[in-house]
Structure formats: C-alpha cells, structure tokens
Automatic annotation (TrEMBL):
SMART domains hit by this protein: ING (SM01408), PHD (SM00249)
GO molecular function, one term: zinc ion binding
UniProt-recorded name of the protein: Inhibitor of growth protein
Domain PHD-type: 207-256
Length: 260
C-alpha cells in the first residue's frame, strides 16, 4: 500500500510538470515554421535581385551596382539571422524535452532506491528479530539444562551428607553443609557467565557469523555495507550494548571505507 502511494505521488508530480509541455512545444514549432517561411521568402528575393544584377551589370553605373550588391548582402544577412534564430529555437525545444526526460530518469532512480531501501530494512528487521528469538530460545534451553544439572548435583550431595551425618555425627554434617554451599556457589557463578552461550552444542549445518565465527545468539546487528562478507555480528563482539542510530559498519568495512 505504501509503495502504491509512493508511485502515485511520483506520477502525480511528473504529470504536473508535463502540463504545459505540449503548449510550449507547439509555440516553438510555430515560430520555427514562421522563421523558415521568412528565410525562404528572402532567398527568393535574393535570387531575383541576383538575376537582375547579372543581366544589367554592364549597363549600370558602378555606384548603382555597389548599391545593388549592398542590398543583396543585407538580405543575405537577414536570412542568416532567421536561420540562426531557428537553430537556437530548435536547441531550446530539444533541451525542454530533454529536461523532462532527465527528470523522469531521476524520479525512477529515486523511486527504485526507496523501494530497495524499504525492502532491505524490512528484511534486516525480520532477520534481527529471528536471530534474537533463536538466541533467546537457545539460551533458555541452556539455562534449563544447567538448572537440571545443578538440581541433580544438589540432591546427590544432600544424600551423601545425610549418609555421612549418620556415620560421623556433627563434623560430617558441617562438612556436608560446606560441600553443599560450595556446590551452590559454583552453580550460581556458572549460570551468570555470558560465555555459556559459546558452550552450547552447535548444529554443524547451522551458519556461523561475527568475528568469533559462532552461531547467531542474543542481540545481533547487521553491517550496512551490502558487500560485507560477514553481515551479522554479536553486540558483545563489536563492543555494543544498544543498537546505534543511523547506519552502522563493522570494523573491517569501516577500515576499508577509510582507505578509499
């Protein structure tokens, strides 16, 4: 729907610019025909005067012949002016049409660029959303496995502590409590470590991204260079905590752009 509205907007503006073009073209062609008719009339007069001059040149005095030649030359100059005006008018008419053609090419290029930009932004937003969902899902599965393993270890240690308590009295009980406390501390630290994502089982058929060559997880950002060989990066690997405003280029593409 947005594309249709954009198309209608470009088309409406372009048709508005063409509104007066037929009238201007008709006026220019009418003027060119008029100039051509005037030049043709002068050329007929010149031909007649030239014939009369050649027939009577022996009879006429030098002053009369000079006067006739001057008159013929003036007519030639006038015909040349008409021809120059006609050429200039033809050039103006060509430039008038060419201006609208160039505007049409420019509007088409901008329209195509806007469509491609919207499609690219939509695709990137969808990919970022999918990557974010996939990363959160894998992280949740990893945390569930960690919690399940921690629960099993705690249960085993509690059973062991109860057995020791029966055999060794209060000393065994304190030792058991210390062991359980230590186990809980290690497990809590492991759950909070961000590198857990890297320990996740990786599907060999799943593509890898980023400078770390790992699968997609968590928040990721796409490089705005369409020729970027990597395309997607984890926030932590490129030193980001939030998505930056405007266009963003990865370290490699930024360095290449500076070289250019």
């Amino acid at each position: 729907m947005k594309i249709n509205m954009t198309t209608a907007l470009y088309l409406e503006h372009y048709l508005d610019s063409l509104e007066h073009l037929p009238i201007e073209l008709q006026r220019n062609f009418t003027l060119m025909r008029d100039l051509d008719a005037r030049a043709q009339g002068l050329m007929k007069d010149i031909d007649k005067l030239a014939d009369d001059y050649l027939k009577n040149m022996k009879k006429e005095s030098p002053e009369k012949k000079k006067e006739q030649l001057t008159h013929i030359q003036n007519l030639f100059n006038k015909a040349k002016e008409y021809g120059d005006d006609k050429v200039q008018l033809a050039i103006q008419t060509y430039e008038l049409v060419d201006k609208h053609i160039r505007r049409l090419d420019s509007d088409l290029a901008r329209f195509e660029a806007e469509i491609q930009d919207k499609a690219l932004n939509s695709s990137r937003a969808q990919e970022e959303n999918n990557a974010s969902k996939k990363g959160r899902k894998k992280l949740k599965e990893k945390e569930k496995r960690k919690k399940g393993a921690a629960g099993t270890n705690s249960e085993d240690e509690s059973k062991s502590a109860r057995k020791k308590q029966k055999k060794g009295g209060s000393v065994a009980s304190a030792s058991s409590a210390g062991a359980v406390g230590s186990g809980a501390q290690v497990d809590s630290t492991a759950l909070g470590h961000p590198a857990d994502v890297l320990d996740m089982p990786v599907d060999p058929n799943e593509p890898t991204y980023c400078l770390c060559h790992q699968v997609s997880y968590g928040e990721m950002i796409g490089c705005d260079n369409p020729d970027c060989p990597i395309e997607w990066f984890h926030f932590a690997c490129v030193g980001l905590t939030t998505k930056p405003k405007g266009k963003w280029y990865c370290p490699k593409c930024t360095q290449d752009r500076k070289k250019k």
